[in-house]
Amino acid sequence: MASLGEHYLIEYYDCNPHILDNLQAIEDILLKAAQKSGATILNNYLHKFSPQGVSGVVIIAESHIAIHTWPENRYAAVDFFTCGSRVDPLKAYEYIKEKLESAYTFYIKQERGIKEELQNASGQSSV
Amino acid sequence: MASLGEHYLIEYYDCNPHILDNLQAIEDILLKAAQKSGATILNNYLHKFSPQGVSGVVIIAESHIAIHTWPENRYAAVDFFTCGSRVDPLKAYEYIKEKLESAYTFYIKQERGIKEELQNASGQSSV
């Protein structure tokens, strides 16, 4: 592992807007996505906005999954931060894509806590 | 605005490990950082890991701020997702840097919900 964690920033375009605006549906999708990835769920919190949109976060032992939806734009932003090799964020990615009925999606993966930077910062020869 | 939201991924290296392992300190820092940025706090949740490390999320009306700390590596990963122009994530960035006593930090900013992609996905000429 070249870093302590991996952070997936996932864009879901052209989704079903009714699902994006349904708090219970979003909660179910997030929790099931966390389970499918192999994550250990610690807690979750969701909020329904007026007139529309949902925000939700699932805290997992391996970091977090968050979602923010814009039903009026048929769009949802998800990020999945994970550490360790036991969790597979791409299983969550595929599951959420299917459940939001997203016709167009992509993600970027960002390494977090890069080991070379940790070494440089601490001035140690190894971490 | 060229996108619906902005997502700052912030790396804090060479921090004070005692602060990184103190749940109450991390909670105070996150909440104050959210206030300083101008965000509206909806809820927050923190978790202390054994033997060390803290995860925390603040849900704000403008999206979220999350932190995950590795005291053993003197490292913390923060991400700040915001939408709208009222919130200034860089005020939170500077405040957290000072409070974690980070000697080396940087961030990347990722646009989320890119308007050109929203147009392409929907097939509309404007959004």
Summarize the structure.
The structure is a homodimer of 127-residue chains. Chain A is an alpha+beta fold and 127 residues long. Chain A has helices at residues 17-20, 23-37, 89-100, 115-122, and strands at 3-13, 41-48, 54-60, 63-70, 75-83, 104-114.
Give the helices and strands, then pairings.
Two copies of one chain form a homodimer.
Chain A: E1 3-13, H1 17-20, H2 23-37, E2 41-48, E3 54-60, E4 63-70, E5 75-83, H3 89-100, E6 104-114, H4 115-122
Antiparallel strand pairs in A: 1-5, 1-6, 2-3, 3-4, 4-5
Helix pairs in contact in A: 2-3
What this model shows, in words?
2 copies of one chain form a homodimer. Chain A has 127 residues and is of the alpha+beta class. Chain A contains 4 helices and 6 strands. Chain A has helices at 17-20, 23-37, 89-100, 115-122; strands at 3-13, 41-48, 54-60, 63-70, 75-83, 104-114. Chain A has a 6-stranded antiparallel β-sheet with strand order 2-3-4-5-1-6. In chain A, a hairpin with a 4-residue loop joins strand 4 (63-70) and strand 5. In chain A, helix 2 packs antiparallel against helix 3 (89-100). Chain A is elongated, with a radius of gyration of 16 Å. In chain A, 48% of the residues are buried. The mean pLDDT of chain A is 94. The interface between A and B is large, with 41 and 41 residues.
